[in-house]
Amino acid sequence: MPTGYTESMARARVAEAEADRQAGRALVLSVVDAETDDVLGACDLRLAANDPHHAEIAYMLAAQARGRGVMTQAVKLVSRWAIQELGVAHIEIFAHPENLPSIAVAERAGFTRESLLPGYRVKKGRREDRIVLSLTASGLWS
For 49-140, where are the E strands, in sequence order? Predict the structure, then answer.
């Protein structure tokens, strides 16, 4: 968890996630260990406001869960479900250029690196670049 993250912040995030789910804007999923039910991370699917056939996946994984293919599997499952069940035609992942593990997860999950977007996101008051990786319905693995 980020430094300074409080229980009230977590409760607010859960309420926001539920409101987004009910409105059909996003689905925030926990990634859990299949044997212990320990929460390992999260994998979110966010539908574009102006195009329900376009979505973004975002994810985070606890340090102790890395290197086991857990997030790659989660991204594959969420992507397949979005394409096959929701009719999403195009999914994107936006990764910081220096976040090589995140980029590797996307690529192992079948996403293709598309481009660098200079100054795409603001984080802690500063603009940061992002690499966009994408998966289309026609590129879905078998």
Answer: 51-61, 90-95, 112-123, 126-136
